[in-house]
Structure of Exo-alpha-sialidase:
Amino acid sequence: MSPRRASLLLGLVLLAFAAGLRDRPAHAGGGAPAPKEIATPGALGAKAPSLTVLPDGRVLMSWIEPRAAGGVALRCATLGGGQWSSPATIAEGDSVLGNWANFPVVQALGGNRLAVSWLWMRPGGSEACDVRVSQSEDGGRNWSDPVTTHRDATPTEHGFASLVARPEGALAVWLDGRKTVGHQEGDLGPAPDMTLRAAVVTPDGRLADEAELDERVCDCCQTAAVATARGVVVAYRDRSPAEVRDIAVVRLQGGQWTEPSVAHRDGWHLDGCPVNGPALAARGSRVALAWYTAAADSPKVLLAFSDDDGATFGRPVRIDEGEPAGRVHLTMLEDGGALVVWLEQQGQETVVRARRVGPAGVPDAPFTVAGAAAVRGFPRVARSGKTLVFAWTTPAKPPRLRTATATLR
């Protein structure tokens, strides 16, 4: 080979190598966090965690667990100094409900105020349940009498609630089955529509600003809601007349709810509910939306950002590694990026994976939070300063609640 040709080939190789470096996704941060499991409160059988960050930086977790006397207890504890506090009971009894998909949600409202929502079994139907909300004025030590968020009193399903802080109280958003009253599974003809509704529960236990947000939504996918600089953004799985079940958003601005709009047109046609709702996080007017889709038989976990309080979202970034089960959650980072958690299949195992995405939409390397997670569960994540807190449920019999922390680098 002539020296000139060898030089030319070397130049082409270097150009190709440089192009390959340009095409590889740059890391959004300096290395992946390393989660470390910590001792977790909760009895055997504890499951279904929810996390919220208090103004003083502590993280509060709620969960449900079986009672020795029968029935279920809804409990909570705070994480400070690397240790969980002794648990406190929010509600308990034979009528307290919660499962792997339709679980209680806790939300900080500012100051020492908190709100929590859960399901309450209603007599008259095997699956009939109400959404109840209780509030605390002292950081979770004491809780108010529960308030049902809806007045329809129908023996139908209500659930998959989200909570968000408002000046006038706790805004609850939920899936509402009042239009399904009298319908039985297996009845001929189209099933009545599940709707999306909202109401504010005031600190003195009144309902205000009750509204129907969407007249036809997916039956059993989780909702998500966050406060932004200009109002509230709600995300949920829509259900078109053609059974396309993409993620939609509706916003509260200036005291008025907007018309629903599809965040991204995946075009996922599905004749049943995937039980796989979206997740939201916000910082000022910056909003992050994560969701699962299997449009065109290609499962994906996607993330998109908005800089206008959720009015529009940019091009989504793929987060998963090729075999996601979804079940997403996320938290905003100080630089305007986000950290997403989801379930991913790795061989015969389902693991909790996490990934940081920078403000420009560039993903960092993924990392494992838990190597043997429950398939029938939803991992949660919260951020307090540079500390990440993760919570999930193991598939043991009985299940176990687990938590871990990691430091952002």
Notes: Helices lie at 3-23. The domain at 46-341 is CATH 2.120.10.10 (Neuraminidase). The CA atoms of residues 182 and 188 lie 13 Å apart.
